[in-house]
């Protein structure tokens, strides 16, 4: 068991960040949030972090000439804060190999669909438009694609006949708030192993039983 030194990257309201902070407070998650980093100064999650005494930083992608230059600045800021694991929690930027190589196998993302269905943006609306009966959320390792990295865990929720994008999003979000801290705790417990690809299967994740 090791205490995770987390950096949480956000662009918006930060409810998943809050779920992490609540789990730490309730001793369900053995982690410290070393830094909350946003690309937007108006991200609501920054307010939650500051109110709880968590360090925050804002780096605007608009101040950098390239994605790589921006990612170098993100990496330097996270390293300076002592971050060793990175959680993308509503961070609306694609990270480049510059970022991923700085935290190899240590960047995870939460996505509001059952991947590989409905990657990208507006996943809940995509699910409704398609007419699926089961939706959900996914926590996965980040690779250089959009929502394509190895899946760590997923939670399914029902799609109801009278669902709107708002009601379905709320049901999925509630599942996200349970799933993300749980997966982080598995990581802290050393129970999450990334198995490399072989000729039959892509890289995948195995979760070991609790000892
Ligand atoms: C969540 O739905 C998450 O799955 C997606 O962005 C949203 C962030 O919400 N990646 P919040 O900022 O954590 O409330």
Number of helices: 6
CATH topology: Rossmann fold
Overall structural class, as computed from helix and strand content, comes to: alpha/beta
Report the major sheet: 7 strands, mixed
- Report the strand count: 9
Bound small molecules, by name, code or SMILES, are: 5-O-phosphono-beta-D-ribofuranosylamine
Q: Catalogue the unreliable spans.
A: none
Strand order of the largest sheet: 3-2-1-4-5-6-7
**CATH architectural group:** 3-Layer(aba) Sandwich
Can you tell me the CATH class? Alpha Beta
Could you tell me the radius of gyration in angstroms? 17 Å
CATH superfamily placement: Formyl transferase, N-terminal domain
| Number of domains as seen in the coordinates | 1
What does this structure look like?
The relative contact order is 0.15. The chain is globular and about 45 Å long. α1 (15-25) links the parallel β1 and β2. It has helices spanning 15-25, 44-51, 67-80, 97-102, 123-130, 165-188, and strands at 4-10, 31-38, 56-58, 85-88, 107-111, 134-141, 151-158, 192-195, 204-207. The chain starts with a strand and ends with a strand. The protein has a single domain, classed as 3-Layer(aba) Sandwich (Rossmann fold), CATH 3.40.50. By secondary structure, the chain is of the alpha/beta class. The chain has six helices and nine strands; from the N terminus they run βαβαβαβαβαββαββ. The longest helix is centred in the C-terminal third of the chain and has 24 residues, at 165-188. The protein binds 5-O-phosphono-beta-D-ribofuranosylamine (GRF). Residues 10, 12-16, 45, 89-90, 110-112, 173, 176 line the site of 5-O-phosphono-beta-D-ribofuranosylamine.
């Amino acid at each position: 068991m090791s205490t995770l030194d987390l950096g949480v990257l956000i662009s918006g309201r930060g409810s998943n960040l809050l779920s992490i902070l609540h789990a730490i407070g309730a001793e369900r998650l053995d982690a410290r949030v070393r830094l909350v980093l946003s690309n937007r100064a108006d991200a609501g999650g920054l307010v939650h972090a500051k109110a709880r005494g968590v360090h925050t930083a804002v780096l605007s992608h608009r101040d950098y000439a390239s994605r790589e230059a921006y990612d170098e600045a993100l990496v330097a800021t996270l390293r300076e804060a002592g971050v060793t694991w990175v959680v993308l929690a509503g961070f609306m930027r694609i990270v480049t190999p510059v970022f991923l190589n700085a935290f190899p196998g240590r960047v995870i993302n939460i996505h509001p669909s059952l991947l590989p269905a409905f990657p990208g943006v507006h996943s809940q609306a995509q699910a409704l438009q398609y007419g699926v009966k089961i939706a959900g959320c996914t926590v996965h390792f980040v690779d250089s694609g959009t929502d394509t990295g190895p899946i760590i865990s997923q939670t399914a929720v029902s799609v109801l006949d009278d669902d709107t994008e708002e009601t379905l999003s709320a049901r999925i979000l509630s599942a996200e708030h349970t799933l993300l801290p749980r997966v982080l705790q598995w990581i802290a417990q050393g129970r999450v192993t990334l198995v490399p690809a072989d000729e039959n299967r892509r890289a995948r994740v195995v979760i070991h039983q609790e000892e």
